Amino acid sequence: MKELELKYGCNPNQKPSRIYMNEGELPIEVLNGRPGYINFLDALNSWQLVKELKDATGLPAAASFKHVSPAGAAVGLPLSDTLKKIYFVDDVKLPLTPIACAYARARGADRMSSYGDFIALSDECDAATATLIKREVSDGVIAPSFSEEALQILREKRKGTYNVIKIDPTYKPAPVETKQCFGVTFEQGRNEVNLADDALFQNIPTQSKEFTPEAKRDLMIALITLKYTQSNSGCYVKDGQAICICAGQQSRIHCTRLAGNKADIWWLRQCPKVMNLPFKEGIRRADRDNTIDVYISDDYEDVLAEGTWQTFFTEKPEPLTREEKKAWIAQNTKVSLGSDAFFPFGDNIERAHKSGVEFIAQAGGSVRDDNVIETCDKYGITMAFTGVRLFHH
């Protein structure tokens, strides 16, 4: 198949719409549903991300994409009991396979952003992974293959309209790519930079020089994730998964702050007071996620006010105070931070430190590198200048 007609483009008024190949066949097969223009953008970008993660780490990988940027990305490390609970997979009867763990991590890190996402899997989608996917609100999934049982489970989702795309894992695009803007064609070489190269971590200007093996793995995950994230972007990673991704910010410090705030929310969800919120039986998953998000925030009264808390809880919870939040966030450690370009000032490091960052990989090359290095040394942070910029648009 050389082309596939689509219902419309980014918006319903943008017709005609199609995907097609100038040479050769399309590397995809639609097994179910009718994916749209944005679906395919998410699918093809997210597939590149998970394939590169798998190649770099040797572990199955998954990504959750929204509006052509990842909301989550992870490799298939086992889940602790705490992560199973906060990702709401502790009740699954089937054993969680590595690819199912990767998906649970990618989907669970930022559940608010992942609502209605498109999913990418580096390995075959099995029954356990399909079972997790079926429970969540999403637009579709792309993978190199699907087991018969998994395909049957997914075909039952969204009244049979759920988008399932199979991709040829051997497909390799041409080394030069083009795109159009306002009738003008742009051309560039594909970004084929190798982010699994140990040489990226050799230029360490900070006093602290040690990257643990886990930190190197997490920084590779951060950089590969950023390669497919709309710039400016930053990514915090811990234990093999992105715990927050910030995309498309005009200011680098705003990017670091927003990502850090998301990292804090991820960590606060593991606070016993949050994990033990007395939710009513039968509450919808999206309502529960939103309630947790508001409860953690400074606007907690929006869900704890009299006449409102009864909608969500069997009894009124005590607020999570600022002092409690600060004390819990201070316990988060060994977080890695990647940036798609250099940090211009040390204020980025100050903010990252507050969210447990101990390892950083960034391009370097700012006129204020000395200030950034000095701030890292102040907190004992190990930082590498990769010399690689990862802008993506």
| Element string (H = helix, E = strand) | EEEHEEHHHEHEHEEEHEEHHHHHHEHEHE
Q: How many strand segments?
A: 15
β-strand percent reads 15-25%
Q: How would a textbook summarize the main sheet?
A: 6 strands, mixed
For the largest sheet, list the strands in their spatial order. Answer: 3-8-7-6-4-5
Walk me through the structure.
- With 393 residues, the chain is of the alpha/beta class.
- It is built from 15 helices and 15 strands.
- The strands form four sheets. It has a six-stranded mixed sheet with strand order 3-8-7-6-4-5. The protein has a five-stranded mixed sheet with strand order 12-11-13-14-15, sandwiched between helices. The chain has a two-stranded antiparallel ribbon with strand order 1-2.
- The chain is globular.
Quick recap:
This protein is α/β, with parallel strands linked by helices.
Could you give the topology of this structure?
Blueprint: E1 3-5, E2 18-20, E3 28-32, H1 37-57, E4 61-66, E5 69-75, H2 81-86, H3 98-108, H4 111-114, E6 117-121, H5 127-135, E7 138-143, H6 148-155, E8 163-167, E9 176-181, E10 184-189, H7 213-227, E11 234-238, E12 241-246, H8 252-268, H9 272-275, H10 285-296, H11 301-304, H12 309-312, H13 322-329, E13 335-339, H14 347-354, E14 357-362, H15 369-379, E15 382-385
Parallel strand pairs: 6-7, 7-8, 13-14, 14-15
Antiparallel strand pairs: 1-2, 3-8, 4-5, 4-6, 9-10, 11-12, 11-13
Helix pairs in contact: 1-7, 3-5, 5-6, 8-14, 14-15
